[in-house]
Design goal:
The strands form four sheets. Strands 2-1-3-6-7 form a five-stranded parallel beta sheet, sandwiched between helices. It has 224 residues and is an alpha/beta fold. It binds calcium ion (CA). The site of calcium ion has 5 residues, from β4.
């Protein structure tokens, strides 16, 4: 899961980023509205964690930037003010959740996961299709009741493919999703190629279908 944390307090920013990274999320940072606007215009995120009191304005302004996006990320608002107005405005603009400061890191993570599931997976912890079962909490994929031996990145790639099934995913977008912004290097493209090759092999060895097709010159597509 790729997250943008919009937060100007360095202490909070560092601890949240580290905690999320330790829990298998890619977390990018923006410390001002201006910086955040650039990021959301240039990159795609699954989720945004949004502080409201930023040095150059109210965090809610970011919703204006998001209006033009094809896909709106999940949004969790953080606010020290704990004001009902902020909460109502945020939720009316389309925020998915609201967490008053101070908050505990495990609680933030639980909400991040819950918003992500609600937005992308209809709130389910398990996805089942054909003979395949994806267990989001355990980070396990099984085919015909046999658990595949996947690395963390392979699991992430497959889940990302599933969520974007039927769409062509470019190597750039896969690299960004797996390693964060500024990651479109040839090294990363080689890794993607390897991950996909391994995934295809592991799925086919377990008796699964060939779900991942190559779209020449563009990227890959997950077909159900
Ligand atoms: Ca702030």
């Amino acid at each position: 899961m790729k997250i943008l944390l919009i937060e100007d307090e360095p202490g909070i920013s560092e601890s949240v980023t580290k905690f999320l990274a330790d829990n298998d999320c890619i977390c990018e940072n923006a410390s001002s509205l201006k910086n955040a606007s650039e990021k959301v215009n240039d990159y795609e995120y699954d989720l945004i964690i949004l502080d409201l009191m930023l040095p150059d304005g109210n965090g809610l302004e970011i919703f204006k930037e998001l209006k033009n996006k094809k896909e709106i990320p999940g949004i969790i608002i953080l606010s020290a003010k704990n004001s009902i107005d902020d909460k109502i405005n945020g939720l009316e603009l389309g925020a998915d959740d609201y967490l008053p400061k101070p908050f505990s890191l495990p609680e933030l993570l639980a909400r991040v996961r819950s918003v992500y599931r609600r937005k992308n997976l209809s709130g389910n912890n398990k996805i089942v299709f054909d003979d395949v079962e994806i267990d989001i909490n355990r980070k396990e994929i099984s085919i015909k009741n046999r658990i595949l031996d996947l690395t963390q990145k392979e699991f992430d790639v497959l889940l990302y493919f599933y969520i974007n099934r039927g769409k062509v995913l470019t190597k750039d977008s896969i690299a960004e999703h797996l390693w964060g912004d500024y990651s479109s290097s040839n090294d990363h493209f080689d890794f993607i190629y390897q991950h996909i090759k391994n995934l295809r092999k592991k799925i086919s060895e377990a008796g699964g279908k060939n779900y991942i097709s190559t779209v020449y010159g563009l990227g890959y597509k997950f077909n159900l």
